[in-house]
Every structure is written in C-alpha cells, then in structure tokens.
Specification:
Elements: H1 33-53, H2 56-71, E1 75-79, H3 82-98, E2 106-110, H4 111-116, E3 123-127, H5 134-146, E4 149-154, E5 167-170, H6 182-198, H7 205-215, H8 218-228, E6 233-238, H9 241-257, E7 261-265, H10 266-269, E8 281-287, H11 295-310, E9 315-320, E10 335-339, H12 347-369, H13 382-389
Parallel strand pairs: 1-2, 1-3, 3-4, 4-5, 6-7, 6-8, 8-9, 9-10
Helix pairs in contact: 1-6, 1-7, 1-12, 2-6, 3-6, 3-9, 6-12, 7-12, 8-12, 9-12
Length: 390
C-alpha cells in the first residue's frame, strides 16, 4: 500500500459543497487506488452496516417496502453501471427476505427504462454512488411525480440525486478509484441490512467483516489472473445472484484491463455462445449456491465447465466454500477462488458479499498482468475520455 494508507481508517467523504469526482491521480505502478479500496473493504463494510442499521431512513424504507408488499404494489430497484449491479443484488436480497409468496413483487430495472416508463406506485429505490447519474436521477424524479415512493442509496445526502427523493440512505465513504469496488460493496451491504430488517433479523457487521477478510486471497487471484492474461476475450457466467456477480466482474474486467468480457447466464452459455469460443476465450464461472434446491444449478454449471474443457478454454471458477471439493480440479485449469461462508449471514447475502472481493481482486490482478492502471477506467486515453462525454 502507499505510504500513509491505513485500510482500517475511514475513507474520505464527497466534497462539500458536492461536486462530481475528477479523474483519479495517476499511479505509475501498483498498488493502485483500486488495490487500496479493496483492502479497505472488510473494515468499511462493518462501518457501513452499523451506520445503515442506526439510520432512521433505513427503518422508514423497511416500513415502505413491507407496506408495499402487503398491498401487492411493485418494489423496484434501479441504477446504472456498477450501481445497476448493486440494484440487481438488492432486488435478490429483498425478494428473498419478503419470501416466496410476495417476493415476485420485487424486481430490478435499468434506470433509463424507468425514466422512459416511470413507476406510478409502490416503492422505487435508486442506487448511485456519487448521486450524479443522469438516468437514475431522472428515473427517481419522474417516478416520484407519477406517484411512487422514492429512496436513494448513495454516498451523500448533498448530491443532485438526493434532492430528487424522499429518503436518502448514506454510505458516507467515497470510492477513490473510478474502477468502483467500494462503490459496489457499500450499497450491497446497505441492501443486506434492509433485507435482514424485513426478515425480522439483525445484520451482523462483525460477521461480514470476517467474511470479507477471509475472502481476500491475493495469491489465488494473481494465479487466476495470470491464467487468463493471454486470452483475447473472457466470458463470465453465473446463475441467480451469481449472475449479478458475473455482470459486475465482466464490467470490472473491461473497465480495469480493457479486455473484452461478456456476462452470460450459465444456462445461456451453452445455447449457442460456445460457437464463438476458442482456446483463446477465457471463462470465469461463479458457483456459490450450496443450498439443497441448487442441485440442478450445480449440475448445469459442471456441464458448462466440461464444455469449456473440451474447447481448451482457460477456465477459472469462483466457488462457494462448500462447493469447491465437488468441482474437479481439472475443470478449472486457470485457477479458482473461494467465496467463503458465514453462518451468521443469510445464504443469499453470503453469496453476493462473499464473491465481491474475489471478483474485484481478480479484475485488479488482471489489470496488473496486462500492464494497465485500472483507476481511470481507460479515460486517461483522450479518445476514451471523449467517447465518455460524447
């Protein structure tokens, strides 16, 4: 880590008065800001969980969601980019907490789709790290005017997004890298706190800190990244909440290393997409579902790994701790990472939170292997900067 960086210390908050972040300061070599943000996450997650648990806005949003579920009204999460993936994770967590009879009321929608077709009732929860994302803010503003109750999970209540909603749940600590890791994990922790409260439970911040600390295996991540570094492109696959992790990893790989990556549902992978796969196509497969009803998922995932082996694809798996022994080593020739378990946390929250640091470390080490600083997400290239602003 850079001199003076302490992963136990609170990260800076947003500027006051609020302003959008500027491109991160360039570092010629690792450790990058992304490296330090990952290192900070175990302690940060415990702080975010504590803040969320004691925030009156959390209790108010829990009441809104429970009331909407009782009435049969829609409960929607929304966002863009990394925040869209946090919104997807939140929808899975909330639906699981509400239960099978009414969990279908919860869904995640892309922010531009909501802005185009505003929600006229129920609850809409937006996710945006800094609070300045145009599509998310428009979705919240238009849906509020159409009759939905609106809330925002973001770093600050001083942002433009915060001015558009009725409730703001603050994470308070701002990601210092544009290849967001803290910006993904923090809102997922808030969603896990909300889900636990809806289920009549408390969310254990000490347990999540321990979970994330155990998930930090830099040697595994570096070995897996080296196994993928020669690939021309990468496919990332997962099912259920693992599909959320797959989407986030695909984004992190493209942002951080510039390597083309595509996220697919595990079952979708073998329905045509393998026709374009070669020995230069890497595969990263998430499999963290160790529940009894997950047996078909596990078998189909093993089938995908067998298919990849037949094609000679460099393959990495991110596996739940209980599932690793069931997956033969020869099916993961490029390596494997472990998403650990924590008995004090609901399995669905354990899966998404336990996968966060392994996927982030893999993306960060892949950027290193390809000689790229992940922090500016390519926008230190004038053409990429112009494309982002076009």
């Amino acid at each position: 880590m850079s001199p003076g960086f302490d992963p136990e210390e609170q990260l800076p908050g947003p500027p006051d008065p609020w302003a959008p972040s500027t491109i991160p300061a360039r570092r010629a070599s690792a450790p990058y800001l992304m490296t330090e943000m990952i290192a900070a996450e175990p302690a940060l997650a415990a702080r975010v969980a504590k803040v969320a648990a004691h925030d009156p806005s959390t209790g108010a949003l829990v009441d809104w969601i429970q009331d909407a579920a009782t009435r049969g009204d829609p409960i929607t999460t929304t966002g863009c980019g990394t925040s869209e993936h946090a919104a997807m994770a939140a929808a899975e967590l909330l639906a699981n907490a509400i239960g099978p009879q009414r969990g279908h009321l919860v869904r995640s929608r892309q922010a531009l789709d909501v802005a185009r077709d505003p929600q006229a009732g129920g609850v809409l929860v937006g996710f945006t790290h800094e609070g300045g994302t145009w599509a998310t803010n428009e979705a919240l503003d238009r849906s509020r005017r159409a009759g939905a109750r609106t809330a925002l999970v973001t770093v600050s209540d001083r942002s433009p997004g915060a001015a558009r909603v009725e409730l703001v749940l603050q994470t308070r600590e701002q990601d210092q890298s544009w290849c967001h890791t803290v910006g993904y994990l923090s809102p997922v922790v808030v969603a896990a706190v909300l889900a636990a409260a809806i289920a009549g439970e408390s969310f254990d911040g000490v347990a999540v800190r321990a979970l994330l600390a155990v998930a930090t295996d830099e040697a595994q991540a570096e070995a897996a990244a080296n196994g993928l570094a020669a690939c021309a492109r990468i496919i990332v696959a997962g099912t259920g909440i693992d599909y959320v992790s797959a989407r986030e990893l695909a984004l992190k790989i493209e942002e951080g290393s510039g390597l083309p990556a595509t996220a697919l549902h595990t079952e979708t992978l073998r329905h045509g997409h393998l026709a374009a796969a070669t020995a230069q196509t890497g595969l990263v497969l998430f499999l963290t579902d160790a529940e009894r009803e997950g047996e078909p998922v596990r078998e189909r995932a093993s089938g995908a790994l067998r298919s990849a082996r037949m094609l000679g694809m460099p393959t990495v798996a991110i596996l739940g701790a209980r599932l690793g022994p069931d997956v033969p080593l020869e099916l993961t020739p490029a390596g494997r990472l472990t998403a650990p378990e924590a008995n004090q946390i609901r399995p669905v929250a354990e899966a998404i939170l336990g996968s966060a640091i392994p996927l982030q470390l893999l993306a960060e080490r892949l950027a290193r292997a390809l000689g790229r600083n992940p922090d500016p997400i390519g926008r230190d290239d004038p053409r990429q900067a112009a494309a982002a602003d076009a």
